[in-house]
Amino acid sequence: MDRKKLLTLIKRDEGIKLDYKQKIDINSEYGKKELAKDICAIANSRGGRGYLIVGIEDKSKEITGYEKQYSFTEEQIQQIISTRCEPPIPIKVDHIYINGKEVSVITIYDGHQKPYQIRENGAFYIRRGSTTDVMRKQELLSAFQENLNLILESYPVIRSSQEILDNDTIEKYFKNKGIILNSDNREFLLESSSIIYKDRDSGKYCCTFGGLLVFSNFNNLYIPHNMVRIKLNNKNNIVIVQGKLLDIIDKCEKVLSEELPNNYPKEAVIEALKNAVLYRDYTHTNRDIEIIISRKSISVISPGNLIYSKESSQIPNDLSRNSWLYEKLITLDDKKRFLQTRRGFYLMRNSFNGKGKVKFINSKAEGTFKVIFPGTSVFE
């Protein structure tokens, strides 16, 4: 951190990755608690590295500096974080003088071990705008899943029964793997593949979350948010599509083929739909996938943000979410639609050359990823 970068940062308003403090008090227990909570919240929030800048008035952004009694070292901040946050959060401290006033910048790096929690009370914090708040259950599930601490697809759906699974699809999956399913090995193979789950106390089997998504025609009984809602152009009716994930894609392809003009690049919209079905965040239980068709635009809205790779904020990290589903779908899909997902962004972006722009909106505020295509009027 240098003076030039600091001055650039100060021009920005407070947000989920930027917090201003006139001072911090690391000599009091209360001050240490508040500092740990603030750093934990910034670390858990999306968007790369964050900054807590000390010596700035938060509303006016006036450079005030701070008195010597409130000075601190990187080692002291590290000690507070390592003893109060779990796992420890990677940080760095820089001290910079501006107009004779000391300003300190605590850089909070985007670690690989989210979510971070406060040891004392076990709470997980996050930033909402410029304030600190407790993480909600849905946010925790997403954070664990994105950092591979949770495989949602393998979680048991306790009240379900394996009788609701489609045996033909299950047999096809194992046949494509070179395995013949029979009555002797069926339960062992399904449990080993996390399609079903055995309760150790009762000895009874139930389906897993992923098992229902991929192998059940009636998964909406247990996972009602597994649906695609298609709002049709200039019509009041809405088409609801449910079922096994591959069936959802097939049914939606048929609807899109019927509703879109013959010369419209349907393959681009289908690519966005396919990615939404595979990579949506299934922990968002109050949201489904939406396709909104109008003359002005066509939008495909997927619950959950797009996850980028750790190496680049421009490269999607396809397999950070739903890798279990990905393996099942590439095995089952005869059309081989999931083998080149990164090329899909190129396809979507370039299918409308000369007709309009395709927008990709990764909305952290809404918790959605949107692909917005030119509307049908362009091809009328």
What does this 3D model show about the protein?
With 380 residues, this protein is of the alpha+beta class. It has three domains: 3-135, Schlafen, AAA domain (Methyltransferase, Cobalt-precorrin-4 Transmethylase, Domain 2, 2-Layer Sandwich), CATH 3.30.950; 153-221, no CATH class; 228-379, Heat Shock Protein 90 (2-Layer Sandwich). Helices cover 31% and strands 20% of the residues. The protein has eleven helices and 16 strands. The strands form five sheets. A six-stranded mixed beta sheet has the order 12-11-13-14-16-15, covered by helices on one side. A hairpin with a 6-residue loop joins strand 9 and strand 10. Helix 8 (245-259) runs antiparallel to helix 9 and helix 9 packs antiparallel against helix 11. The longest helix has 16 residues, at 29-44. Mean pLDDT is 89; it is low at 310-315.
**What kind of sheet is the major sheet?**
6 strands, mixed
CATH architecture of the largest domain: 2-Layer Sandwich
- And the CATH topology of the largest domain? Heat Shock Protein 90
The percentage of residues in β strands lies in: 15-25%
Number of strands: 16
Number of helices: 11
Number of domains: 3
Strand order of the largest sheet: 12-11-13-14-16-15
Structural class, by secondary structure, is: alpha+beta
Query: Can you write the helix and strand succession as a string?
Result: HEHEHEEEEEEHHHEEHEEHHEEHHEE
Mean pLDDT: 89
| Shape, per Cα inertia axes | globular
- Radius of gyration, in Å, reads 25 Å
CATH class of the largest domain: Alpha Beta
